[in-house]
Amino acid sequence: MTQPIIIPFLLVLAFLSLFRSTSSTAIPIITYNVVNFGANPNGEVDSTHAFLSAWDKACNSNMVSSTIIIIYVPLGRFLIGSVVFKGKCNNIEITFRIDGTLVAPLLSKYGEIGNNNGNWLLFDDVDGVSIIGVVIDGQGASLWDCKRSGNYKCPSGATNLGFTNSNNIMMNGVTSLNSQMFHIVIDRCHNVKVEGAKVLAAANSPNTDGIHVQLSSSVTILDSNIATGDDCISIGAGTTNLWIENIACGPGHGISVGSLGKEVEEAGVQNVTVKTVTFIGTENGVRIKSWGRPSSGFAKDILFQHATMINVQNPILIDQNYCPDQKNCPGQNSGVEISNVKYEDIHGTSATEVAVRFNCSPKYACKAITLEDVKLTYQNKPAEASCNHARGTTSGFVQPNSCLQF
Ligand SMILES: *[C@@H]1O[C@H](CO)[C@@H](O)[C@H](O)[C@H]1NC(C)=O
After folding, report:
1. What is the number of the ligand 1 atom nearest to the C-alpha of 273?
2. Which of 62, 242, 342, 386 is deepest in the core (most CB within 10 A)?
3. What is the CATH architecture assignment of 95-104+120-399?
4. According to its UniProt record, where is this protein located (predicted)?
5. pTM strictly above 0.85
6. Of 253, 306, 347, 389, which one is the catalytic site residue?
């Protein structure tokens, strides 16, 4: 009587052990520890060469295609000058697992770190690179001081972490501190996922945008916390199919599409979703911004959904008359056409009377703007709205009263 039970049981055991052994041997993992290439975790000895050697090894080794290659950085502080991790590589996937902190050299060497097309750590022409963990510290404070002092001889500084011409990139749990310029830049890339990023720089640090995306498609930014001196996330020309969700932003300048229309010939921005964001004490909430001069650029199919504004100066803003220093644009109209922009479930407090401002191009009115379930107050009273050349509709409860034209 026991046989019918025992046999299936043994079969299951045999099957399980077969499964276990295939799963643990089929995917070989090769780990390159940067310390074995001479990297020093004391934060003082330059480890640039060791990181590049580990990368060269990982990038150029010929493995069977299923091999997982890991570049491992243990705990510690690693001083690194400007580096390009360049493809194309022989391997499908390279994962950086970084428990330590990467530290940029101090101001005296800034000329050197800005060399790299304005990047400190740059990945160029790579496919299938993941970064897990890592704290990167750009040590930008002394450069910010220089810029704030009005000294026009300051170096422009470098982006902490850049990706150019790359596909299938993942960043998971990356912390970016005190970048000299932008923190993370995604430029001419396809299929990028950023998850659990933390970005931190002083509220008065100039041009320290958190994450900047341009000329890229299918980028997703999730579950991130950004506190900086410029835009939390900025969305440049040529961005399509961008998804941003569950972000805390502030201090900073908010989430911005733009500045668009700087160039006469410019790619448009299309299909952007910005969902579930809390803005805390920021200059702007959700903004679209363009230069006030001719351009082929455009922004369309944009959804701003579920935003909480806490004491935000301009919670909802379209500004098409951007003209810094009043140079090369006064008296001209923005050529950037803005259409199909939806604001849904946007609520909270404005730090100024006008919480909704649509200041569109006199040449191309903003079209198909939708406000749905918006409630913004200023000093416990309904805030105000201001419109120029803005067309659209409302639904649900909308406060301040809409000034959109049909
Ligand atoms: C818009 O982008 C999302 C990803 O953010 C994508 O899933 C969706 O298919 C795109 N929609 C269109 C119409 O391309």
Report:
1. 5
2. 242
3. 3 Solenoid (2.160)
4. Secreted, Cell wall
5. yes
6. 253
For the chain, give every domain's residue range. Answer: 95-104+120-399
- What is the Rg, in whole angstroms, of the alpha carbon atoms belonging to the chain? 24
Q: How many helices (H) and strands (E) does the chain have?
A: 4, 29
- The answer to whether residue 4 scores a pLDDT higher than 50 is no
Question: CA 261 to CA 322: how far, in whole Å?
Answer: 10
Q: Give the residue among 115, 129, 143 at the shortest CA–CA distance from 48.
A: 115
211, burial (CB in 10 Å: exposed 0-12, middle 13-18, buried 19+): buried
DSSP 118: T
Cβ(245)–Cβ(276) below 8 Å: yes
Which residue from 271, 272, 273, 300 has its CB within 8 A of the most atoms of ligand 1, so it is best to mutate?
A: 271
Going by C-alpha positions, the residue among 174, 176, 90, 175 that lies closest to residue 126 is 90
Average pLDDT across the chain, whole number: 92
3-state helix, strand, coil in the chain (%, to 5): 15, 50, 35
